[in-house]
Amino acid sequence: MKTWILELWHYRELLWAFTLKEIKIRYKQTILGTAWAILQPAALTIIFSLIFGLFLRIDSQGVPFIVFYYSALLPWTFVTTSISFGSLSVTNNSGLVTKVYFPREILPFSTIGAAFFDLLMGSVIFIFLMLLYGITFSPSLIFIAIIAPTLLILTSGISLILSAINVLFRDVKFVVPLVLQIWLYASPIIYTIDRIPDSIRKFYIFNPVAPLIQSFRDVTVLGRDPNFKELSLAILLSILIFLVGYLFFKRKERIFADVI
Amino acid sequence: MTGEIIFNKVTKSYKITKAKYGLLRDAIVESFTRKLKRVVVPDNRAVALNRVSFRIKRGESVGIIGRNGAGKTTILKLISKITYPEKGEISTQGRIGAFIELGAGLHHELTGRENIFLYGAILGMNKKEIDEKFNDIVNFAEIHKFLDTPIKKYSSGMYSRLGFSVCAFCNPDILLVDEVLAVGDVNFQKKCIAKMHDFKKEGRTILFVSHDMEAVRSISERVVYLEKGRIVRSGNPREVIDYYLSRAKETPQNEL
After folding, report:
1. How many structural domains are present in chain A?
2. What's the CA dihedral at A257, B2, B8, B10 to 10 degrees?
3. CB B110 to CB A254 under 8 A?
4. Within a 10 A sphere around the Cβ of B34, how many other Cβ atoms?
């Protein structure tokens, strides 16, 4: 493990170069360019606000629907982009994998880095929206400093596992969009976590995305502290998934060039 | 010692699959039939290298020749840790500059300038190092006019020049060059060969795979002849090349 980390450190400039490449490539030959990074959560926010807010009258705890939904869709978009691009990151770079050497985990990591860039872009709009709707920034906002890194660790772990499996079995490509769709409903995005009956909530929080998104919404638009017990569980699970993913990826890495 | 390469009884084979990659369905079915029938389904494998041992000293320049599929590229890929041996050990010391395939490490959508930085980083150079060598790379590759053009618009010769230049200036202890110079025009080939001669003078190790016997003869101090994953001859370039050419004449294509 130590040698892996040392090597990754040695190649840190490559990680940076790949992340920049990932950002540049993704929006090359598109008219709107990086605006796409913002449009995705923005479009969903409008749709959700209309359907779940205006039509179905879901309780948004007094927060205007636009910011209520954006506060969950912003981290959720990060989860979906990083996992969907991350899981394809090794196979999409098969030309590199078969011809040049570098620590392969740089590939999934750089796609996560690019997704994080999108998240930052989206956050600028978020701050703007919060000001527009007159939402006060509470001191709880400081917990973003824990929530955001945990999201990074979690999606990195999942991407490590999926990208390695995808080298062997391209079925992953089809499974991921399906699972992400179900996952959207299994996370407190359309609704808040308070709506889950306690009997189910015990199990519900084992989806690490759930406490993370709920906490994100808590500390931003709802202006309150997150549920620390549930957040800690999410942090623990995320680290665990990351470690398992990293070990799995490194074990499979040696055969990538042969089977890709 | 830096620049040294040692192969000790290295064996490498590739699994031959019907499709390009495995399907989950096939893997499940296969593992079930194996368990049910309790028979060992023999793997369909092609041996690329069979107990190959050799030692290349620091500063030596070695040419590898042999027919297609003899295992030449596999050796280069094993040295650069792109792939790993099944059996045997490989030890290398020092920074490796591998130029194994045309355009490897270059990205179509990026410009020539961006690619120099990206490929440089892939080869383990840091930003400062690339900055210092940037002009040398551009001059050597002769791509001044197209620096800010996406390289998907480049000709194959320009691709090859760009790739070789970045590799050559990454200051490797070991330079691995596969049959990639064939794409450039005569002038550029001459430049590359001259560059490799400079490398030799600087005491760097060169491993050169080619079908161009003239080039091999001019660069190598020693030539290794591979046949079906085994080293058949190794030694004086002229003798080994003559032997290879006579073998090639007397045996029909499909038997070697």
Report:
1. 1
2. 10
3. no
4. 12
At A73, the amino acid letter reads L
- Interface contact B177, partner A, CB < 8 A: no
Domain ranges for chain B, please list them: 5-255
Q: Locate tokens 């990639």: which residue?
A: B180
User: How would you classify the pairing of strands B87-92 and B96-99?
Assistant: unpaired
Tell me if A99 and B101 make a contact (CB, 8 A cut-off): yes
Distances (CA, A) of A186 to A75, A191, A201, A211: 15, 10, 11, 11
Give CA–CA dist A176/A183, Å, rounded: 10
Domain B5-255 falls in which CATH fold?
A: Rossmann fold (3.40.50)
Amino acid (1-letter code) at residue A254: R
DSSP tally for chain A: helices H, then strands E:
12, 0
- Say whether residue B100 is in contact with chain A using an 8 A CB cutoff: yes
| B82:A13 CB<8 A | no
pLDDT digits (tens, 9 = 90+) for B195-254: 888 888 998 999 999 888 888 998 899 999 999 999 999 999 999 999 999 988 877 655
- The model's pLDDT over A169-221, given as tens digits with 9 standing for 90+, comes to 888 999 999 999 999 999 999 999 999 999 999 999 999 999 999 999 999 99
CB-CB under 8 Å, A24 with B104: no
Range of the domain at A214: 2-259
